Amino acid sequence: MAQFQNQELEYMIDDEYYDMTDFEHNNNNNNNNRLQKSCAEDSMDSDFEDDFDQNKSKTDTSAEEARNGKDIQGIPWERLNFTRDKYRETRLKQYKNYENIPHSREHLEKVCKKVDKSQTLYDFQFNTRLVKPTVVHFQLRNLLWATSKHDLYLMQNYSVMHWSSLLKRGKEVINVAMPVLPTLKYPGSFSRSLSRVQVSTMAVRDDLIVAGGFHGELICKYLNKPGVSFATKIADDENAITNSVDISYSSSGSTRVMTANNDALIRVFDAKSFTCTNSFKFPWSVNDTSVSPDGKLLAVLGDSTECLLADAHSGKEIGKMKGHLDYSFASAWHPNGQVVATGNQDTTCRLWDVRNLCKSLMVFKGRMGAIRGIRFSGDGRFMAMAEPADFVHVFDTESGYGSGQEIDVFGEIGGISFSPDSEALFVGISDRTYGSVLEFNRRHRNQYLESMF
To answer: In what ranges is there compositional bias, type Acidic residues (predicted)?
Structure first.
């Protein structure tokens, strides 16, 4: 990963940062009606009962408002000196993708799969500005995780926030500006107090939240227990940022946490005792790591054009994935465990069959920049990939990835996440004025009705 001097917490996106202050306007002129929504207590399956009320922001957008012509992000194009289409055209021309290794894109155009992106796989449902992800390092965008179609966790400034899409409310879960005092101390766990942690990456699975810090910190919290269970500093190097964290089940069924750091190490922690059970050394800074669904394989990506496949128990290299032209920062496994996707600063995502790594199965290209986020839906039907800004691409795997949807927004993308049941897709926008969380719901086609026409 590139060296990055962090001067302030918010909005440090370097060359890729896109400030939308051109869109600032007087909210007093916004007369949108407040969306009223009531839910019976027994219909709520949120992880938390929120302990405070928040009125819906006047700048939030519902599906009904969008159908009536309102921009899904609430940008008042009718009051600006340019249209949305004109601004998009200018944006595509002016955007400069960040590269560690300069390369030509001519070859990529020839090898990338042609995809029909005219489909609507997920319909816009709601956009809120009450919560929004904060990007600490411009190359790291894993800051958004859904645990159900109604429950979302994200990093906002110094707070891990929970957003309930049912209640339209947010709640602070962890405050890392204040001293973080771990409640559990096991022999050999090296737990310690931390403060003012700048969270660079996070992951949530079941009832466990794991956050990695800009200076090598690691914080773990069980949602069903008070306080923070574990906190420590796992690396002390000057540039020891925690680039990636992953929560997985080992082949024996135990829960483990894996961290990837700039010191070229992947560390393995037992999620019960929080002891470091193993560490794997690699020849370059590790930017991302993810474990296969069966817990046996490990995708390792970093400051290299090559990506590695390793044994998740020993860290021993099994094979190399060659084809990318720059450094990689994102990976995801298809639920079948046979396909892994890698995202790279060369603006492509590649699919690999782990049984034969000699050549990538398919190559997909973004519109503007690097692929910094990849997710598969829980049922394996869809794959989503996010660029640093403006575009999220959703692919239908059952069509052989030949059809899909392009979600077109404005602003830096802080993260994407499918709900575990694949019914919702969340997109986090990091921006001073239009930072928000967008929710999309899966479109279901009524096959019975379609058969009648």
So the answer is: 42-52
